[in-house]
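sanity check this:
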Amino acid sequence: MQTQLEIPCHFGAAQDLFGIYHPGSFEHGIGVLLCPPLGQDLIRCHRLYRQLAHALAGIGVDVLRFDYYGTGDSAGASEEVEWSRCLADVATAAERLRSRSGCQHIIGFGTRLGGSLALAAAERARLEQLIVWDPILDGPAHVDALDELQAALRFDLNRFAAPRPAAALAGQWQGFATGASFRRQLAELRLDLPQRRMLVLHSATTDATAPTHRFSRTGAEVASLSLPTPWDDLAGLETMIQSHELIDIVTRRVKESTYA
């Protein structure tokens, strides 16, 4: 098996962002920027993002995965995460991928809030094409879901010997300290969808309110994965999110774009 390079890098004006660059095997002039989700979703998707980066580099494209300020291995604390800073970080990361690889055509990929950020930053980051997986379009509903999960966590006797006092888990979502500013920004989030070539992947769901129609109206291609993804399942909070089906679909889509 061919060993693929993973090149760590710090970038941004203050060198406070961290990323891993995966050089492709060929010169296609196309790169893929992997925009991570936030909070528990980021932890649970870490392995999937690494596998996806390897799969994409294996078909010859250059890939950058990175952490927003206040997340992962970038500088800052989780309570310092700001929506506007995350958007700026997507643009900074896209420029880093261009300068490092020489690619001028960047495809953005994102999961959940990573998908939302890719959508919202597409113009600023000059992402020519988007692939998003279960993106969050309704900020208030997402805040409610996180609050509900956090409330249930207090009484989860599979994790705690006794119900935790409210103060012990206040100001955080599932183990990540959350600033009031970011909470407010997320509660006000209503995304306008960019006019881009776009592939939207939805996990299998029986939810009739899934916002696939919003994407369809923009001309985006919408596809469903064959299995549900347990994003908001309390019992699976520490469980890795994996989908070989998703990696196959994304890799095939990028390959089609590369040779189009």
